[in-house]
Amino acid sequence: LISVFMFFSMCVYLATKPKKKHAFIVLAMYVMSNGIYLLIGTRNPFILSLLFALIYYCMRQFSDKKEVWIGKVEKTLIIASVPVLMLGMGAMNYLRDDAEVATNGIMALLIDFIYKQGTSFGVLAKGYLYECYLPVRAFKNYTFGPIIDYFYRGNIGGMLFGTTPLPENNSIELAFESNSYAHNISYIVMGDDYLQGHGIGSSYIMELFTDYRYIGVFVFSIILGIILVAMMKLAYAKKVLPMALSLVMLQDILFTPRASFMSSFMPLFTVQFWIVMFVIFFGATMLERYTKSDYEDFDLKKEK
């Protein structure tokens, strides 16, 4: 609960539309904190935090009439950092498995990095090929899998249905009993390698196709597009909570092509999220009343 407070509270703060220098400090600290994941060979949190910061800057660039958020300095930094990130992340493909970089020269490493971005297509191809081997259960749904497993196999499910929590690490139980497409398909494709911590991930397109066929892909993709447009429009909103909700969804929604359809919306269904929101907004309301009372007392003493 304490750890998730950081990201949710940061989104609320950024939704108040602070000045550029204040937002920069917060976003820089956020990116650096996710940079720690690089030490254990995980790239996604770091890259997603960079994209989160970039899109927030873009949102403020379009909606803020007082400050320029993407000027010459920012444009130069973006152009200069892109090839460096491509090379670094490409090399990490090998370094995190204690393997030598299997390319010679910078250009070869760039090509190798671009080639390996086809992982999403690989998930679609393997998912279509191995669909008939997916676990057969009385009820199974991958599209809303994270929500189903959170409630049914969480504390609420334990109290109502006597269920036990699913393990967090790769396991046979996750591969056969969860509604996680990533775990189900990874075990089918990789076998024992999956149990060693590897996986091929998921894709919202494959989840929709498995559950609802082509009509599901068509309908839910339109819904996703509407949500994305609404999230950008919230950059112009004056209310804090709607924009905070869009920022909470923003980071994970960028990873949707490689993740579950509901992964980006999942925080909105958790008890932790609403506890944090209550604490922040209740505390802000009390603070506002307290300071307002102090100002009124000060004005009365000044008049006397």
Major beta sheet, specifics? Answer: none
Q: Indicate the structural class.
A: mainly alpha
Q: Average pLDDT across residues?
A: 87
**Unreliable residue stretches:** none
Number of helices: 14
Question: How many β-strand runs?
Answer: 0
Percent range for β-strand residues: under 5%
Q: Specify the oligomeric state.
A: single chain
Distance between the termini: 48 Å
Order of helices and strands: HHHHHHHHHHHHHH
Helicity level: 55-70%
Radius of gyration from the CA trace?
23 Å
Shape: globular
Characterization of this structure:
The protein has 304 residues and is mainly alpha-helical. It is 68% helix and 0% strand. The longest helix is centred in the last third of the chain and has 33 residues, at 271-303. It is globular, with a radius of gyration of 23 Å.
